[in-house]
Design goal:
Layout lengths: L13 H5 L9 H20 L6 H9 L6 E2 H8 L3 H13 L3 E6 L2 E9 L1 H22 L4 H21 L9
Antiparallel strand pairs: 1-3, 2-3
Helix pairs in contact: 2-6, 3-4, 4-5
């Protein structure tokens, strides 16, 4: 043990999962982080041609499956801080890509909707995202992708269960 190493923790079961030896190649969060960064960089390069960044794309895609969402709901779906989402929505509104209005039954909530121009841009951006998806998973079948999504969802849920503070909204 090196002097900078922390004291050993109680058995967490990690050795059973990872084995003994080098940690990096077996550590799943190493790969999750690397894949996420490579995905973001690849998508960003493609979206740049549409004058979009990944965060703005996430907001537009969040609005695709619902007619309208609150800024808080968008922040949750897009995995962005509420303050960041608010700024992005304001810029998208200035650009004519979304409209905002107070929710009819609760004026404290701001609802956001795609405009026709926003939906068109979302469609064009989705083509780029689908190309990245095909590049990353083109040789896998739908069952492989479904299995990966199922596993990632379980990990996400377990991390939330392990740290109740992580379930609180992003501020």
């Amino acid at each position: 043990m090196r002097a900078s190493d922390p004291l050993p923790l109680p058995d967490s079961g990690a050795e059973r999962l990872l084995g003994v030896g080098r940690m990096r190649p077996q550590w799943p969060f190493y790969w999750i982080s690397r894949v996420n960064q490579r995905y973001a960089d690849t998508l960003q390069a493609r979206l740049r041609t549409l004058d979009l960044d990944v965060s703005r794309w996430r907001v537009l895609m969040s609005l695709h499956e619902d007619e309208q969402l609150s800024v808080s709901e968008i922040a949750d779906f897009a995995v962005l801080k509420l303050s960041t989402t608010t700024k992005i929505v304001q810029r998208l509104a200035q650009d004519g890509l979304v409209t905002t209005s107070p929710r009819t039954n609760d004026a404290r909530v701001t609802d956001v909707r795609l405009t026709e121009a926003g939906d068109l841009l979302r469609l064009r951006a989705r083509e780029h995202a689908e190309a990245v998806l095909a590049s990353a998973f083109g040789t896998n079948d739908a069952d492989d992708l479904a299995g990966l999504n199922e596993l990632l969802e379980k990990v996400f849920d377990r991390l939330g269960d392990a740290d109740p503070a992580s379930r609180r909204g992003r501020k």
